[in-house]
């Protein structure tokens, strides 16, 4: 199959363009369908027997149910369906009436479409608001100006592709200030966008560039977001109401295959002569921004990952519920994170690794402490950090002897964290300097709030931002 195929065919006959099994059933080949059905009785799309214009409302819904039922048949079990649909009113004077509604009364098209699509087998997952600034119908007396449509998200099964991390906003300025003190509660890839999406549609009419003259043109950025969420390179994208072909053009630019159905030959000609090339230019800019976002996500993962790695040993010590005698048995905690030079990369579900050395003054409490520690690291909140700890309990002498023979980390670049503050290091220290200080009275002064000093190869200096203003007294 070529990268994109534009069929001049009515979407009610879509099964004719898809391959079939040996037994005659449609093959499940579509990964995602993105489309917007024609408006009901609002615009003439230019051919006889069209869906929507001049149709009774019940037949319009029946046709949509049949079409999306057929889309269901050709979709993979991991596939999804995205339908952009408007709420609308009946025509003012000469439009057809709908049983049960008076003239000018609002018709909840969104919920009628949901019903017929669900009846065809699809599972409704979400309803999004698309703020687009311009839409049909326009405002009229007794009605505010309409600037949004609904995006209905359906899936074929409960096992569907949905790559949320690709569209997260990797800007910690959008976080509440608590992200510094509670990094384990925030995704290292950023904030998940809400179900209110803002994508202005391309300018139409006399001010338009002329390549997307369609009653409901999709902005390339909207299609890009859906494809990022639900597809990989090489996946098949389908639009049964292709119109100007923006969905197909964006899919082509993102190295996805696509199939579009559009009976109006003018749209197909415009796709080949104008839309494909112009969308390619838009996607160059959008792809560049997506790469910048990937870089920002990498930096945010590194920042949050470091905060988690320095906080983890502090939480571990607190969860041991030590009495005074047990606390005094701990001299220091060394938290050594790995692969920090290249940052925290890859899928965040791959857990971070941290070597934790709990350095004891003597062996008297070693077995008891180790037993409790190995229990608490398997439970929340420690199990929520995304960290795979390698935990060891050693006496000072054993630890110093072991590190002197075969050092497992950079002895010259270590940072001390005290007083339970793990987002701001206290001072830099070398391993040799620690070995000299760890048995002195000066080192005991670093014990605060029943917490031993934490020494780490991770340098964190992240102040807590103030995002709120206290009330005046």
Task: Describe the structure concisely.
This protein is of the alpha/beta class and 473 residues long. The chain is 30% helix and 19% strand.
Q: Can you offer a commentary on this structure?
A:
With 473 residues, the protein is α/β, with parallel strands linked by helices. It has two domains: 4-161 and 194-263, Vaccinia Virus protein VP39 (Rossmann fold, 3-Layer(aba) Sandwich), CATH 3.40.50; 303-456, no CATH class. The chain contains ten helices and 16 strands. It has helices spanning 57-73, 109-119, 220-230, 246-253, 265-319, 324-329, 366-376, 396-405, 431-437, 441-444, and strands at residues 4-7, 30-35, 75-85, 88-89, 106-107, 123-131, 148-155, 196-198, 236-239, 257-261, 330-337, 352-360, 387-395, 414-417, 427-429, 454-456. Strands 1-10-9-2-3-7-6-8 form an eight-stranded mixed β-sheet, with helices on both faces. Helix 1 (57-73) packs across helix 2, helix 3 crosses helix 4 and helix 4 (246-253) crosses helix 5 (265-319). It starts with a strand and ends in a 17-residue tail after the last strand.
Pick out its properties:
473 residues; alpha/beta; Rossmann fold; 2 domains; 8-stranded mixed beta sheet; elongated
């Amino acid at each position: 199959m070529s990268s994109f195929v534009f069929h001049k065919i009515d979407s009610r006959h879509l099964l004719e363009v898809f391959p079939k099994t040996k037994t005659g059933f449609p093959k499940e080949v579509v990964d995602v369908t993105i489309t917007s059905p024609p408006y009901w009785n609002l615009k003439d799309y230019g051919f006889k027997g069209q869906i929507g214009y001049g149709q009774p409302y019940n037949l319009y819904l029946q046709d949509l149910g049949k079409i999306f039922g057929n889309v269901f048949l050709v979709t993979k079990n991991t596939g999804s369906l995205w339908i952009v649909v408007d709420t609308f009113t009946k025509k003012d004077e000469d439009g057809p009436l709908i049983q049960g509604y008076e003239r000018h009364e609002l018709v909840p098209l969104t919920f009628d479409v949901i019903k017929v699509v669900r009846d065809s087998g699809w599972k409704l997952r979400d309803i999004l608001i698309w703020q687009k600034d311009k839409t049909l119908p326009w405002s009229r007396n007794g009605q505010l100006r309409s600037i949004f449509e609904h995006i209905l998200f359906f899936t074929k099964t409960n096992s569907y592709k949905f790559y949320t991390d690709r569209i997260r906003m990797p800007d910690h300025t959008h976080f509440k200030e608590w992200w510094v003190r509670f990094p384990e509660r925030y995704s290292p890839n950023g904030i998940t966008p809400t179900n209110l999406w803002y994508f202005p549609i391309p300018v139409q009419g006399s001010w338009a560039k002329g390549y997307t003259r369609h009653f409901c043109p999709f902005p390339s950025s909207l299609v890009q977001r859906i494809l990022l969420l639900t597809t990989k390179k090489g996946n098949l994208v389908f639009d049964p109401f292709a119109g100007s072909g923006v969905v197909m053009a964006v899919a082509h630019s993102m190295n996805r295959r696509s199939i579009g159905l559009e009976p109006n030959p003018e749209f197909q000609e415009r796709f080949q002569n104008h839309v494909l090339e112009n969308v390619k230019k838009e996607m160059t800019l959008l792809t560049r921004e997506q790469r910048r976002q990937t870089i920002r996500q990498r930096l945010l993962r590194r920042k949050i990952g470091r905060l988690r790695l320095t906080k983890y040993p502090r939480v571990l010590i607190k969860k041991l519920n030590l009495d005074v005698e047990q606390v005094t048995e701990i001299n220091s905690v060394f938290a050594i994170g790995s692969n920090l030079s290249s940052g925290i990369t890859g899928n965040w579900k791959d857990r971070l690794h941290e070597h934790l050395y709990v350095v004891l003054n003597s062996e008297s409490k070693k077995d008891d402490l180790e037993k409790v520690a190995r229990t608490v690291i398997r439970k929340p909140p420690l199990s929520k950090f995304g960290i795979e700890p390698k935990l060891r309990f050693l006496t000072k002498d054993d630890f110093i002897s072991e590190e002197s023979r075969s050092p497992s980390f950079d002895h010259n670049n270590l940072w001390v964290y005290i007083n339970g503050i793990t987002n701001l290091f206290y001072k830099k220290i070398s391993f040799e300097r620690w070995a000299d200080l760890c048995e002195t009275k000066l080192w005991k002064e670093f014990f605060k709030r029943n917490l031993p000093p934490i020494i780490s190869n991770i340098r964190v200096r992240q102040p807590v931002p103030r995002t709120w203003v206290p009330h005046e007294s």
